[in-house]
Amino acid sequence: MAWVVDRVHRIRDARARLAALGSAGQDAIASLDGSAGGGYPGRAVARGLVEISRSVAELQAADIVLRDLDRGLVDFPSMRDGDEVYLCWLVDQEDEIGFWHEPDAGFAGRRAL
User: Which of 7, 33, 36, 48 could pair with 14 as two cysteines, CB 3.0-4.6 Å apart?
Assistant: First the structure.
């Protein structure tokens, strides 16, 4: 579980660093041009974007769904009585996974394990 918490916090930290760049960071992000060799306009922007990309990719590779970065809401696909469900966890508010929900129910439909 610490691995998931670490990835969520890395994404938040990188996003905060990009936001701290203010309009310069926003302008740099907006000016990214894939046809120009994929170069990033500045080390600070590149570092933040790469960290976000890497951490999101690591979560996805582990089949973990980041639903809400601000709330720290993540879902883990699982099976329950032969049906696909999501185990639901708020990484900063709950010590462990204690809830699940059906795919179409979302957070509002979560139930205790």
Answer: 48
